[in-house]
Amino acid sequence: GATPQGQMTLIFGRECSHSMQYFYTGVTQGINFPEFTAVGLVDGQQLDYYDSNIRQAIPKVDWIKNVEPEYWTRNTQIYQGTEANFKVDIGTLMQRFNQSGGIHIVQRMFGCKWDDETGATDGYSQDGYDGADFISLDLRSTSWVAPVPQAVITKQKWDVADAEYTKNYLTQTCIDWLKKYVQYGKISLERKVPPQVSLLQTDPSSPVVCHATGFYPDKVMISWQKDGQDLHEDVDVDETLPNHDGTFQKRAELKVTPDVWKKNQFTCVVEHKSGDPIHMILTEEKIRTNSPGNNVPGIIAGLVVAALVLIAVVVGVVMVVKRRSGERDAANIISVT
Asked: Are 248 and 242 in contact (CB under 8 A)?
């Protein structure tokens, strides 16, 4: 897809690093969804939001309100310009892919990270079309990579007009803003909230799910052990999902039959920087099921909400503001045309 989770894990995997990420999404008309959305996040917390219906950047966390008032005016102008470009881009890409109609999606995803222990920095920028990679920046060679023929024209244009600027933005301007945001949101971003862990099962024959929720920050490790040894087979670990309150949740499914886990000791281990690892031994008594008196439906509803929150975030976009008058907008609202 246009936003491979594996790459994100590699880019933002270390606990001592801070990250800033931005997402744009443009869609064709005809569905009940804004034609353009913008979302920005710092360390997994959503900063602000913009879409083509409200046409205004709005804050999503209290601490971002500490920035200067002009921030919101400038950001709104940047998003409006990006929105206009994305509408043109969708039409251009439909022509390149020989499409005359239907629902189509353009996505841009970029960000930077800063390790507050080593000072190391990194960044990325990539575009997708209809869920597939379209073009991405290679920071080392300062050139754009076109994985599909339809992107070659864009690569040729951007290599000349944009590659050096985008690299400088990701490795300098983006980092400066990230450090500023981390300072603004220090108390909120550095808080540590431990996970609540449950063992869930929809019915006696279904897999047992180890579900951790309510934790912050988002880095967490969930694993299953059999008789004290790490178990990799018969285990399916899902991606971390955001909750509506700014915390996160994650689940790991154990795909073994009850007759197997009743004869051995299976343990779910949840590791989070908020404290010592949590060990939950699998027993029938600890499993919460769909039977009367249990609240698994509520938990499952929470999972659905988390998935919708994730969609709302990933289907989004945001660009940061120019830092002083005369500097080119950090929004990088270059068109594919």
From this structure: yes
Total number of domains in the chain: 2
**d(C-alpha 163, C-alpha 122), whole Å:** 15
Q: Quick one: 14 and 152 in the same domain?
A: yes
Do 97 and 9 lie in one domain? The reply is yes
Considering 188, 215, 248, which residue would you say is the last residue of a domain?
A: 188
Question: Which residues, 6 or more positions from 98, have their beta carbon under 8 angstroms from its beta carbon?
Answer: none
- Three-class secondary structure assignment of 37-101: EEEEEECCEEEEEEECCCCCCEECCHHHHHCCCHHHHHHHHHHHHHHHHHHHHHHHHHHHCCCCC
Q: What is the pLDDT of residues 235-276, one digit of tens each?
A: 999 999 988 888 999 999 999 988 898 899 999 999 999 999
Domain boundary among 155, 188, 221: 188
How far is residue 248 from each of residues 241, 288, 289, 309, 310, measured CA to CA in Å?
6, 20, 22, 11, 10
- The answer to whether position 321 is within a domain reads no
Is 322 a domain residue?
no
What domain range is 147 assigned to? 5-188
Task: Classify strands 196-201 and 287-289 as parallel, antiparallel or unpaired.
Answer: parallel
Contact 19, 113 (CB under 8 A): yes
- DSSP run (H or E) holding 215: strand 208-215
- The H or E element containing residue 267 is strand 266-271
Across-strand partners of 17? 115
Considering the domain boundaries, does residue 328 fall inside one?
Answer: no
- Report in angstroms the alpha-carbon separations of 186 from 72, 189, 335: 21, 5, 36
Report yes or no: 317 and 23 within 8 Å, Cβ to Cβ. Answer: yes
Model pLDDT for residues 289-306, shown as the tens digit of each residue:
755 455 454 555 555 555
Q: What is the pTM of this model?
A: 0.72
Shared-domain flag, residues 15 and 143: yes
